[in-house]
Amino acid sequence: MSIEAEPQASSSTAAPSKEPKLIPVLSSRWALRGAHVAVVGLFCTLFMLLNHLPLRNTDLWGHVVFGRAVLDQHAVPTVDPLLPLAEGMRIVDVHWLSQTIFAAVDRWGGPEALVGLFTLVVWSTYVVLGRTFFLQTKSLGLTTLLTLAVVLVGWSRIATIRPENFAMLLFAVLLWMQFGRRARRAESVLTDDTRGDALLWVGIPLVAGLWANLHGSFPIVVGTLGCFWFGRVVEVAWHERNFKAVFTDREMRRQLYWLELALAATLVNPYGIDAWIEAVRFSSNLNLREIVEWSPLVVIGIGGREFAVACVVLAVILRHSRQAMNPADVLLLALFGFAAVMQIRMSGWFAAVWGVTIAPHLADVVGRWFQRAESAALVDEEEIDTTDYRTPALRYRNTLLCIVMIWLTFAFSTFSRPLLGGAPRPQETLLGDTTPIRAGDFLKASKLSGLAFNPQHWGDWLGMNAPSGLKMFATTNIHLMPRNVWLDYLRVLRGDTGWDSTLDKYNVRVLIVDKKDQATLLHALKTAPDWVRVFEDDQAMILRRKSAQPAAAQPAASTAAAHP
Q: Helix, strand, coil proportions of the chain in percent (round to 5)?
């Protein structure tokens, strides 16, 4: 920005002299267009949406407890602090770094700080993907469209805070490095342009090493780089019709070196090669088959419609594109498409791959469509040059609009509360309606002890709030539960025949029931003489054995909802 003085009137005129008038002059780079407004609007809206999502009651609180153990003991945990029935089961805590981050952020700012962490990590993931789309398409409009499409395709996986969020960010960075490099090489006149490859020599092993300590999905980085390497092998073999050319191809060797570096970097973790063994063993655990996100994709189920629409759009775009399909892209789509079909939880990974592989083809189709439209318009016009050669005036209204949107996003987000004096959100809004808040408050104030049977999806929250003498039957770490214990858990959860004798076998002293999902067990308890109700609200019911010690008085917040 510069300041220019308005020239004074000529001395030949009789006009009186005036003080110079200062006129602000902004660089033309700040004169944003409507496409910039669309991009800023999309990312501001996404930021606000993420920032106001509640902390869903999944495995978050179990990770916080594990992270507290790491901070307190300065070592990775060897036992599950919340799951006594998993005693003796070996633990390979491949999430230790994510858990430590969660615990440190929770100690610093509580659940509200965890929301802020979740917002920044997930939002940054889509910013990196958006940058990748722009490098591929050179169009802000297509960047906005593709980013929005990827958000919608992977929506079923976007709303939960867990270590997977860090892995998705690293995955986006990996795609940006590879596809951004491809876009740069396509623009270069050199046949073997290696400028900027230093980023990948450092970035790929760094991403792989961090990933192996943040989340158990780190084999994905090796699988992704394997697709790039083998795709190059196929490409050279197809064009040269000579396998000798494959071994002498510099690009193939470069991709192979990066693959080997990534594989070596994943071994830099507290467990070494055992982390790989755990990743394979974990994904094949039979207990996980009872969890929805580990189930196969169904078209009319969670994430199924989005996946089906994405496949149709992909087929249409590829049908009309004149761009050659890179073999690596085919391998990536096949790998992650198959993974998404086999497990719902992979739909978010597929969405990212779908976006970066379809981007250049969408740019080709849209570009040729605009060319045809412009050609048709020129044919209809008279051959008269009506071009206005005057320099258009710079307008900064769009720039001002973008600044206002960014400020409003900050002002209405939780990040502004400490600075602007906003009141903290109530616990019910912050944690959502899936968290048994009042049941947790009751247990915290009670003197109940022994083993408590509970729905596993509540186990982390209740176990974190329960008194030290009360342990949960199940938590979200169901892969640590022996198979026979898991089957007994399902028998009681569903209220199947023999549920009461199963509770006797484990000497369960407290019974916690999800009133929405355990109607059969709830009905059976009406005629069970050995259990007395000590707490109930619209969400949960807590009972104890008559021989168990009575509970302490309930906190004021729960008294109105409790029944004697």
A: 60, 5, 30
Residue 426 neighbours by CB distance under 10 Å: 8
Average pLDDT of the segment spanning 552-561: 38
pLDDT tens, residue by residue, 200-238:
999 999 999 999 999 999 999 999 999 999 999 999 988
Do 354 and 477 fall into the same domain?
no
Cα 120 from Cα 131, distance rounded (Å): 16
Examine the domain organization and report whether 62 and 208 are in the same domain. yes
- Decide which of 342, 372, 402 is a domain's last residue: 372
> Rounded to 5 degrees, what are φ and ψ at 508?
-70, 130
DSSP state for residue 464 in the 8-state scheme = H
Per DSSP bridges, beta strands 2-5 and 22-25 are antiparallel
In the chain, the number of structural domains is 2
pLDDT at 381 over 70: no
The range of the structural domain enclosing residue 363 comes to 28-372
Question: For 158-185, b where at least 16 C-beta lie within 10 A, e where not — what string?
Answer: bebbbbbbbbbbbbbbbbbbbbbbbbeb
Q: Which of 372, 398, 415 is the last residue of a domain?
A: 372
Task: Return d(Cα 286, Cα 276) in angstroms, integer.
Answer: 18
Q: Is residue 23 part of a domain?
A: no
- For the chain, percent of residues with pLDDT exceeding 70: 87
DSSP state letters, 192-243: T--TTTHHHHHHHHHHHHHHHHH-TTTHHHHHHHHHHHHHHHHHHHHHH--H
> Are residues 156 and 337 in contact, defined by beta-carbon separation less than 8 angstroms?
no
| Together in a domain, 360 and 482 | no
**Based on C-alpha coordinates, what's the Rg of the chain?**
30
In a domain, 531, yes or no: yes
Backbone angles phi and psi of 512, in degrees to 5 = -115, 125
Quick check: 222 and 262 in contact, CB under 8 A? yes
Whether residues 189 and 300 fall in one domain: yes
> Between the CA of residue 456 and those of 147, 452, 461, 512, what are the distances in Å?
35, 11, 10, 10
